[in-house]
Amino acid sequence: MILPAIRSMKDLEKFIQTNYDYCVILDLHISQLEHILNMLKLNGKSAFFHVDLIKGLAIDEAAVEYLIQKFKVYGIVTTKTKLIKKAKLLGAQTILRTFIIDSSALKKSYRFIEACEPDYVEVLPGIATKVIKEMSGHTERKIVAGGLIETIEEAEIALANGASHITTSNQKLWEHYNPINKN
């Protein structure tokens, strides 16, 4: 339900203490990659890496191949369909991040979803429940609500409208939804 969004090492340390199995790593410098992956592995956790936000790594298919083959990352997040396609070919989980600012962007996102068939589609902003509801009715992909969800009520509304997950860096929401038992 919640995918904790990690923006710093402090966030990662907090995430490690939760019962969540998965997170999304944002705002990463390439020099931190191996350390972060080791921390995750030692604690039985996995992560989606937002490849568009890894500083020092080109945003191209070779970068995705490098992350998946060398570091065995669980999954990637990106706005680029060609990177989703490459990651899927290599067996990684994928999240296509979409920014829905108007009806034209919504129509374009449907074309992108059909073109690359991601495992998940992240809708930003996550408070756009009308879009979440429409998109969940239009595609079989799981919908992730991301961005601007700050309260339990906003999270519940997104979930009630078709979101399967919520990405958030809000640790109060992590705590509220923290799974009681690890699987």
Give the SSE layout.
Layout: E1 2-6, H1 9-16, E2 22-25, E3 28-29, H2 33-42, E4 46-50, E5 54-55, H3 61-71, E6 75-78, H4 81-89, E7 93-99, H5 103-116, E8 120-124, H6 129-138, E9 142-146, H7 152-160, E10 163-168, H8 171-177
Parallel strand pairs: 1-2, 1-10, 2-4, 3-5, 4-6, 6-7, 7-8, 8-9, 9-10
Helix pairs in contact: 3-4, 4-5
What would you note in describing this structure?
One of its GO terms (biological process) is positive regulation of DNA-templated transcription. It comes from Macrococcus epidermidis. Keywords: Glycerol metabolism, RNA-binding, Transcription, Transcription regulation. With 183 residues, the protein is α/β, with parallel strands linked by helices. The protein has one domain: Aldolase class I (TIM Barrel, Alpha-Beta Barrel), CATH 3.20.20.70. It has eight helices and ten strands. The strands form two sheets. Strands 1-2-4-6-7-8-9-10 form an eight-stranded parallel barrel, surrounded by seven helices. A two-stranded parallel ribbon has the order 3-5.
Low-confidence stretches: none
- The ordered H/E elements are EHEEHEEHEHEHEHEHEH
- Per CATH, the class reads Alpha Beta
What count of domains describes the coordinates? 1
Give the end-to-end Cα distance, rounded to a whole number of Å: 14 Å
Strand order of the largest sheet: 1-2-4-6-7-8-9-10
Question: What is the CATH architecture descriptor?
Answer: Alpha-Beta Barrel
Estimate the mean pLDDT confidence: 96
Strand content: 15-25%
Radius of gyration: 16 Å
The CATH topology comes to TIM Barrel
Number of helices: 8
Largest pleated sheet: 8 strands, parallel, barrel
By secondary-structure content and strand pairing, the structural class works out as: alpha/beta
- Overall morphology: globular
Percent range of helical residues: 40-55%
Any idea what the CATH superfamily is called? Aldolase class I
* Total beta strands: 10
Protein name: Glycerol uptake operon antiterminator regulatory protein
Function: Regulates expression of the glpD operon. In the presence of glycerol 3-phosphate (G3P) causes antitermination of transcription of glpD at the inverted repeat of the leader region to enhance its transcription. Binds and stabilizes glpD leader mRNA.
Keywords: Glycerol metabolism, RNA-binding, Transcription, Transcription regulation
GO molecular function: RNA binding; transcription antitermination factor activity, RNA binding
